[in-house]
Amino acid sequence: MTLGFAPSTAALTTSSSGSASRLSRTLEPAEWAAAGIPLLGNPREVVSGLHSRHTPTPSTAIVAVLDHEERLTASASFVRRAMPADGWESRNALLAHLRRVIPHDLRRRTPVRTAVLLYCREGDERWTEEDGAWMWGLRDACTLHGLRCGAYITLTHAGWQVLGEGRGGRRPSSDSHPVPIGSETAELSHLTPRTASGAAEPLRRAAAR
Q1: What is the mean pLDDT of residues 13-17?
Q2: In which residue ranges is the amino acid composition biased (Low complexity) (predicted)?
Q3: pLDDT digits over 166-199, tens only?
Q4: Whole-prediction pTM value?
Q5: Among 130, 137, 136, 184, which Cα is nearest to 154's?
Q6: Which is it for strands 114-120 and 148-156: parallel, antiparallel or unpaired?
Q7: Of 64, 86, 119, 197, which is most buried, counting CB atoms within 10 Å of its CB?
Q8: Contacts of 42 (CB under 8 A, 6+ apart)
């Protein structure tokens, strides 16, 4: 004879409440598109430049800050911990890395810099709950750091995709070999950080792998 105990009503309620909270901290592509996220002028250049600098593998997130001319100001990469998709956790991770690489712009009346997020993952280009959590987290982190919320881009075996826009390409992909940083390509020169005088300066990068 086997004896067992049914889970308490309180436990079931707590579990259900936690799942509902996580689901509420996600954004679907239609919600993202309706939020008025600014379009990237040349997303392939941005993706190629970040791919070359951070050489992401699946589960790697790259958050980058662009100036008003879409030049890279700072970026950071880190590996997502294995856990249920939750926008709150994504927001905290993004905000922590933004604070490490660039001062906030909260004193400005309107944001002048834009944060974009590139996430390398398994699967295809179709939206997932994990993508929704990153979208929610990016939007919230930008608000808390005084930045304009920019594009969310996935990088998979099939290539890259700007979610909510329908723009993408085959290269780079999660399997691609990065183009050397010193290469004289348009993608990399476009993303070279510059000082106020216009001279190139080294990229500030924070990476936790």
Answers
A1: 43
A2: 8-22
A3: 899 999 999 988 776 555 444 444 444 433 333 3
A4: 0.78
A5: 130
A6: parallel
A7: 64
A8: 70, 190
